[in-house]
Amino acid sequence: MSLLAVPDGPGNPWFSWRYVNDNRETILSALSFHAEVTAQAVGLAVLVALPLAVLAYWVRPLTGPILALSGVLYTIPSLALLAFVAPLVGVTTRAAVLIALVLYALLMIIRNTLAGLEQVPPEAREAAQGMGYSRFGRLWRVELPLALPGIITGVRLATVSTVALVTVGALIGQGGLGDLILGGFRNNFYRAEIMTGTILCVGLALVLDLLLAGVGRLLTPWQRRVRA
Amino acid sequence: MNYLNEGLLWLNDPLNWTNPGGVLDRLGEHLLISALAVLVGCLVGWPVGVLLGHRGRGGAVIVTVSNLTLAVPTVALLTILPLTPIGFGKPPVVIALAVFAVPPLLANAYTGVRQIDRETIEAARGMGLSGGQILRRVELPLAVPYLAAGLRTASVQVVATAALASFVNGGGLGQIIAAGFGIGISNGGAGQIVAGGLAVAVLALLVEAVLAVVQRLATPRALRATAPRRRPAVTAGA
Question: What confidence tier does A114 reach under pLDDT thresholds 50, 70, 90?
Fold first, then answer.
């Protein structure tokens, strides 16, 4: 199908509706794969990062090691992470991409969550203690809600960069929209395919970012009142 | 751990280092591309950041720029630029990487100038220094620790991202990983994949360590307590 669609009329335009129409199903499945992998990666990263951040917050001696470890994971290039993970879990599986993405997103969420927890005012903490909250109760009812702006910032950063990073999975054919971008490049430099993938990728990042910003606003109504 | 052994075995073969397209060749390409990209990034990011900081505006622009580049996939720029009049070869790769080097350099240069105590600037003005003299003799020297911090963040990121140049045959250590995937696991490519991954990861960590020392040396002892944080929270991925 894509063999027939190569040159679009004369020349090789940067964008063509004909390409979009002819390949609607491919494009949509790439887009939904991309969104799905992003959601799974960020979701898993949150599940791992939040407990780690709380641990780093409660147990001071662990703060340094936890931040350092996630910093090292963040410094290792995504392609190298993929190279370590892929042979272990099977080269063409989604799991390889997913694991690499989760490891990569950890740092942003841990660091911002920790920053959020650390700027909880000591008065709030003491008041909660005075009201008889246990350690977990205080965390759940007082500290985590007050740290929400930091957590949301971390999740937004992680989401936007994960959307961009999924494209790296194109190396093993698991890149979602990245498959379109790289496929277009390999398919005789088919500009329309490359551009469609890129536009959708940036668009997806912006939409998810706005969505999360909206969720953040809904979850922290007290911040709105302060600003107004 | 079996694959790790295969990777070390691959790295232990001297021919894999000295062959054409071996580790040494690729390392040279990788460092050349990265150095050029960081250089271009510095030439753009530093003057603009310092000037914006000197004038005291443009903070919002910098935030927007760095958020936007966070959303643009490196792979997309790497594939798009060769198809523009820039053409194929090293220039599009260098430019694509430089685009991602600019935000940390720009943001740190801006912060570096903005964080200077207003009283220092006013004292300089009171001593009769002109705007340009304040910029050169007061603001720039005091911003050096921040410039070094930006250089470190940008360099680590560019070295990491340069691995992706292999997607468009742009050379660099990523090429080893890509070639390994080309061979396939079933044909014994796993060793080469892991070896390439090790090479890229070690290089990134080395650059980080070396530039951390540079950053420390660039920070006068008296300023080390207030020196910029290890790394700004907002950094684009590679």
Answer: very high
Task: Search chain B and give the residue with CA nearest A150.
Answer: B233
User: Is A5 domain-assigned?
Assistant: no
Rounded to whole angstroms, the Cα distance separating B223 from B36 reads 30
Does a structural domain hold residue A8?
Answer: no
Report d(CA A201, CA B168) in Å as an integer.
19
Q: Which of B79, B193, B208 sits opposite A181 (nearest CB)?
A: B79
Poorest-confidence range of A2-6, A129-133, B198-202?
A: A2-6
Asked if B182 reaches chain A (Cβ–Cβ under 8 Å), the answer is no
Residue A2 contacts B where some CB pair is shorter than 8 Å: no
**Structural domain contains residue B143:** yes
A76 vs B76: CB contact, 8 Å cut-off? no
Quickly count: other Cβ atoms within 10 Å of residue B87's Cβ: 10
- The answer to whether residue A4 is domain-embedded is no
Closest CB to B237 among A83, A164, A189: A164
Angle between helices B190-218 and B23-55 (to 10 degrees): 40
Interface touch B237/A195, C-beta < 8 Å: no
**Domain, as residue range, for B11:** 2-226
Place of tokens 């499945």: A29
Exposed, middle or buried, A166 (CB in 10 Å: 0-12/13-18/19+)? buried
- In chain A, the number of structural domains is 1
Regarding an ipTM greater than 0.95, the answer is no
* B181 in a structural domain: yes
Q: What is the pLDDT of residues B142-169, one digit of tens each?
A: 999 899 999 998 999 899 889 888 888 8
Q: In this model, does residue A8 exceed pLDDT 50?
A: no
* CATH code, A85: 1.10.3720.10
- CATH number of the domain within which B201 lies: 1.10.3720.10
Count how many domains chain B has.
1
B153 closest CA partner among B116, B202, B109 = B109
Tell me whether residues B160 and A194 touch, CB distance under 8 A.
Answer: no
Q: Please tell me if residue A15 touches chain B, with a CB cutoff of 8 Å.
A: no
Dump the DSSP string for B113-156: HHTS-HHHHHHHHHTT--HHHIIIIIIHHHHHHHHHHHHHHHHH
B237 within domain boundaries: no
Domain range enclosing A149 = 17-222
Question: Measured in whole angstroms, how far is the alpha carbon of residue B43 from the centre of its chain?
Answer: 13
Residue B211 in contact with partner chain A when CB distance is under 8 A = no
Residue B235 is assigned to a structural domain of this protein: no
